[in-house]
Amino acid sequence: MLTKGTKAPYFEGVDENGNTVKLADFAGKKLVLYFYPKDSTPGCTAEACDLRDNYERFLSLGYNVLGVSRDSSASHQRFIAKYNLPFHLIADTDLTILKAYEAWGEKKMYGKVTEGTLRTTYVIDEKGVIVDAIGKVDTKNHTAQIL
Questions:
Q1: Known catalytic residue: 44?
Q2: What is the pLDDT of residues 40-81, one digit of tens each?
Q3: Contacts by 19-25 with C-beta closer than 8 Å and gap 24+?
Q4: Which member of 59, 98, 113, 135 lies 3.0 to 4.6 Å from 104 by CB, making a disulfide possible if both were Cys?
């Protein structure tokens, strides 16, 4: 996991609408960049809905919210529509962003070791520096962890 005080790695990806989104788009702005395993699964839905329910609060504090998973843009479109998510989701199908942010790696599930997305959130300041890194995400109360 990347640490506080680290310069956020450059990223460029495609959102649910096929638009290119890059770190430079958030220069001078605060960003909550969260990585999650899969659209429409229970934990990922709880996390996204918690962020959605507090989205206006994030905006009022000057934060943008952006999610990243390895799901396709089409999957992201369905996830956003189903849960009325107000923020964009990047389709990182080739794992470039996930790996750059150390959000891809070994994890244990039901006693089995697999490779996958490590649920992680980074708070990035206006200068592109990571000011918080959250590895043990409480999906139902993630906003409280961030703020």
A1: yes
A2: 999 999 999 999 999 999 999 999 999 999 999 999 999 999
A3: 19/88, 21/66, 21/88, 21/90, 23/124, 23/128
A4: 98
What confidence tens digit (pLDDT) does each residue in 2-39 have? 999 999 999 999 999 999 999 999 999 999 999 999 99
Residues in the chain: 147
Please pick, among 8, 23, 44, 123, the residue that the annotation labels catalytic.
44
Domain extents in the chain:
12-146
Nearest to 125 by CA among 33, 48, 52: 33
Choose which CATH entry (3.40.50.720, 3.90.360.10, 3.40.30.10, 3.30.1310.10) describes domain 12-146.
3.40.30.10
Task: Quote the tokens at residue 78.
Answer: 């369905």
What does the DSSP 8-state code read for residue 26? G
* CB-count burial class (<10 Å; 0-12, 13-18, 19+) for 72: middle
Q: Which two tokens stand for residue 72?
A: 């396709």
DSSP 8: P
For residue 43 the two structure tokens come to: 């934990």
Regarding pTM above 0.85, the answer is yes
